[in-house]
Amino acid sequence: MTRIPHESSGEPNPLRALTLDRLRLRTSMKWRTYPDDVLPLWVAEMDVPLAEPVVRAVGDALALGDTGYAAGTGYAEALAAFAAKRWGWHGLAVERTAIVPDVMLGVVEMLRLVTGPGDPVVVNPPVYPPFFPFVEHLDRRIAEAPLGADGRLDLDVLEAAYRRAVAGGGRAAHLLCSPHNPTGTVHTAGELAAVAALADRYGVRVVADEIHAPLTAGGVDFVPYLSVPGADSGLSLMSASKAWNLAGLKAALAVAGPAAEADLALLPEEVGDGPSHVGVIAHTAALREGSAWLDALLGGLDDNRRLLAALLADELPGVVHRPGEATYLAWLDCRALDLGDDPARVFLERGRVALSPGPQFGTGGAGHVRLNLATSPEILTEGVRRMASALR
Ligand SMILES: Cc1ncc(COP(=O)(O)O)c(C=O)c1O
C-alpha cells in the first residue's frame, strides 16, 4: 500500500514531549501495575501531554465549578462535524446518538438492546481482550469467527459463524472492532459492505466499536461502518478517548443507523447519567479543536511504526510483524522465537519490559504479544532492546 505522510500541522510531535522520569510520576494503570524497573509498553494509554484545547476546556470547567451532570448534544455535534471533515461522512445524525459512560459500557448497552440472555455475539479474534468478559458478564455467549492469516476479516468464516449463531433461533449480534485491535487492520468499504450484506441476510445485528477510528496511518482511510450501503440497522460506538488519551475522562457516544433508531430510543435514561460531564467537555473540545494536535500525533505514530519495523529487523529478526494501518498498537508474532504460548511473560521476566500477552486476545493469540508504540522514539528503542536482551 502506498503511504502518503500525514500533513504537517505545525504542532510539535506530542510523543516527544515527555521524559521517562516525568511519565513515571503518573498514577494510572500503565505506570502503576509493574515495578519501576519495568518499561511499560502494554495497556492502551499514550505517553503524551494533552492537547492544549482539552486542557483549556477542562481547566475552564474546573475554574467555573462546572462539574455537574452532562447535558445537551454538543459532543454528538462535534463528532458529526469531525466525521464529515475527516472521513467525508455526512450521515451521523445527532438525533440518533446517545451519550454513554465509555465505549465498553456502550457496547454492553447496545448488545442488551439487540440480543437477549444466552444469545450469541460473534467476535473476530485475536481481538481486544475485554470483549470476552464483558459479553459473558452480560450473559451472552461468545461465538468466534477468527480473522484470516492476513489479519483481515474472513467472510466465509464470518458467514459460517452467522449461520451457526442464528441456528438456535435467538437474536445474534456481531461485535465488530473497526479499526481492529490488536492487528491495526482497517476494514475496507468493500469488506464492511460485505459484512452488512451478510448481517442482513442472516438477521445479525452489527455493533461496531470504532474507538480507534481517528488513529489511521498516513494514506489509510477509515470507513465508518454506518456509512456503507446496507448498514442501516447497525450501531456504532465512538469516542475521543483513544485518539486524545482521555480514558480517565469518561464519555463516549452510541450512534444508530436509520433502521436502529427505534432500538436506541429504548436505551434507559439512566445510562446517560454515567458519563462524566467534565469528560464530555474534554471529548467535545478534542473533536472540535484538537485536529492539529491529532495530526502531529499521527505523524509521530507513522515515524514510530517505521522505527519499530527497523528495530525489529535489526534486533529481533525472528519476530514477524505487519505494520498496522491504524491504532498505536503493534501485533508481534513471536512464534519463531520458541518462547511458548506467552512470550510476554519471558520479555517481562528476563527483559523487564511489559507487553500485552497474546493469549488474552483469544484464538490466534498464542505466541504473540501486543506492543504499545505511542511513546517516545527513545522509549520505543529501549523497549525493543529489552525484548532482544531477553533472548540472550
Ligand atoms: C477496541 C477497544 N474498545 C474499547 C476500549 C476501551 O474504551 P473505553 O475506555 O471507552 O471503554 C479500548 C481500549 O483500548 C479498545 O481498544
Automatic annotation (TrEMBL):
InterPro entries: Aminotransferase_I/II_large, Class-II_PLP-Dep_Aminotrans, PyrdxlP-dep_Trfase, PyrdxlP-dep_Trfase_major, PyrdxlP-dep_Trfase_small. GO terms for molecular function: transaminase activity. It holds the Pfam family Aminotran_1_2. It comes from the Bacteria. The keyword Lyase applies. CDD domains: AAT_like. Transmembrane segments: none annotated. Its cofactor is pyridoxal 5'-phosphate. Signal peptide: none annotated. Its EC number is 4.4.1.13. Keywords: Aminotransferase, Lyase, Pyridoxal phosphate, Transferase. Residues 45-386 form the Aminotransferase class I/classII large domain. Belongs to the class-II pyridoxal-phosphate-dependent aminotransferase family. MalY/PatB cystathionine beta-lyase subfamily. This is cysteine-S-conjugate beta-lyase. It comes from Streptomyces phaeoluteigriseus. The lineage of its organism: Bacteria, Bacillati, Actinomycetota, Actinomycetes, Kitasatosporales.
